[in-house]
Design goal:
Layout: H1 36-46, H2 59-74, E1 78-79, E2 85-87, E3 96-102, E4 113-119, E5 124-129, E6 132-135, H3 138-158, E7 164-170, H4 178-189, E8 194-200, E9 214-216, H5 224-232, E10 237-238, H6 241-245, H7 255-261, E11 265-269, H8 291-310
Parallel strand pairs: 4-7, 4-8, 8-11, 9-10
Antiparallel strand pairs: 1-3, 2-3, 3-7, 5-6, 9-11
Helix pairs in contact: 1-3, 3-8, 4-7, 5-8
């Protein structure tokens, strides 16, 4: 998340009294398992010193871009534009969002889109600590990027999304959400029918004693959390008022899609400002990431996203003010 974020806490969110969402007919293969080995493979490469902290416009992030492009191509995921690269129009160094596309399989619903994203940039070379001057950005946000790759692989394998889905790896988030601001404005100009945007941010370490798997920013702005808990049948996501106090909803790549499209656009995270002390520091390294936790979060999120994407009508809605 962006540098000005300070604190966060959580309380348990309960939705037991809420009505159940309308059932859908889509396949939900319970046998599908996210591979921890694949999580480790992607995460370890994105956080390697070879990429030098993935600063936007750098040689390091270029290597990350190529890796993500190849991953999309290898899994049969097409580029949404002419190529996978969406060149930023608002940054002074050549930088790219990487955008993959899976068309929906329903003749009508495929005209509606869902965006699943995470920023893959970080802060590059920084002040050295114990001789280490690379901000590897494992939690922030190679962890979220890795989650998107695994979700993309799932939908590429089963091809069971009724709505069309964009998988987006944003650049220049650390420069002021520039990648997402660029893409949101571009898609709005193209009059995309966006249903919702779902963003992964800093899921590398678990929360302790919070009674939930992750939290959702902008919790009260939509019924997304309520629906997610209903779809999964457990208390998957929670909230604490301090999340609103520190405006975390505005701190990641979900926010430009909310402002441009006025649709549900929110971020999930497990970074609670108590469970990880190396934010924007050289010690934000692969070795400190809990890949079993990450695999669990991704595994639980995939079937929920599937139901959200395949709902016969737009069930995820903004709350009335």
């Amino acid at each position: 998340m962006r540098y000005y974020i300070f604190l966060l806490g959580f309380v348990l969110f309960s939705c037991a009294s809420k009505p159940q969402p309308e059932k859908t007919n889509q396949t939900n293969p319970v046998s599908y398992k996210v591979s921890e080995e694949n999580v480790i493979k992607t995460l370890s490469y994105l956080t390697s010193d070879e990429l030098e902290g993935r600063d936007s416009g750098s040689e390091g992030i270029e290597k990350a871009s190529v890796y993500l492009e190849n991953l999309l191509k290898e899994n049969g995921i097409k580029p949404y534009f002419k190529t996978y690269r969406d060149t930023l129009s608002n940054y002074n160094k050549t930088s790219y969002n990487v955008v993959g596309y899976i068309e929906g399989n329903d003749s009508k619903l495929k005209n509606e889109f869902v965006i699943i994203g995470a920023h893959y940039d970080h802060i590059g070379k920084i002040a050295a600590v114990n001789g280490d001057d690379i901000g590897n950005g494992a939690n922030d946000n190679a962890s979220g990027t890795t989650a998107v790759t695994e979700v993309a692989k799932y939908f590429a394998k089963f091809k069971n999304n009724k709505r069309s889905v964009l998988f987006v790896f944003f650049s220049a988030e650390e420069k002021g959400l520039l990648g997402s601001k660029h893409l949101a404005a571009k898609l709005k100009e193209q009059k995309m029918d966006l249903y919702f945007m779902f963003n992964f941010e800093m899921i590398g370490v678990p929360m302790k004693d919070k009674g939930m798997d992750f939290y959702l920013t902008g919790f009260g702005k939509s019924n997304m959390a309520t629906r997610m808990n209903e779809y999964t049948g457990e208390k998957l996501v929670g909230y604490l008022p301090i999340e609103t106090k520190y405006m975390l909803f505005r701190a990641s790549d979900n926010y430009p899609f909310f402002t441009e499209f006025n649709v549900p656009a929110q971020t999930v995270s497990t970074f609670d400002f108590e469970n990880f002390q190396f934010y924007h520091q050289p010690d934000d390294e692969f070795e400190l990431m809990d890949t079993k936790h990450m695999t669990n979060v991704i595994s639980k999120t995939i079937p929920v996203l599937e139901q959200m994407i395949n709902a016969p009508k737009k069930e995820i809605k903004l709350n009335e003010k």
